[in-house]
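B., you asked whether I could sanity-check this one before it goes into the benchmark set. Here's the sequence:
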Amino acid sequence: AILFMIIIFALVAVIFSSYALWNDTKAQKDQNLISTGCFSVALTDKTDDGQTTSISLTNTYPISDAKGQNLQPYQFTITNTCDINAQYRVSLSSLSNSTLNTQYIKFLFNNVNSSGAIMQLSTAPVTTLDNETISIINTKNAPYSVSNSYLMEEGSLAAGESKSFNLRIWMSVNATNSMMNKGFYGVISVTSVSTN
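And here's what the prediction gave me:
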């Protein structure tokens, strides 16, 4: 029995030492590389006189659409600053401190190269913002937060391309006296994703 164990042990030792003699391992010399390209969409806001500002309708009153479409717009430009095409979505989000009923808010949103259509905010398409965008808006406007978001436009930007937009907001001529001493507070946001 001991002799049998010695023979088995010797046989196993020969098999494993033979494997070690005939086994050869190689590895590549260079690293594999996966590199991402630049992806960024910039938002620049300004008025016609070049000053950065927001729409302020202090002590406003109901006006006709004809007057509303001639108000000073909030103008902004989005630019794809990188070499990858981008899909974008422009949204207008109302904040929690807004008390003016959206059925009495009219707006005109348009690309500076087109006329656009006058709409009532309550009939604009509702959109859902991603958590990161909501967090950014809420942080900048604390203690107020996003209550609703409305889709203004979506489209695409080629690498290096820019698009400029105008937003005009006014109180509808149909607003009742119950809307006195109320306010609308909103924020424009642009979200984008890369495309190929």
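One thing to flag: The mean pLDDT is 82. Otherwise nothing jumped out at me.
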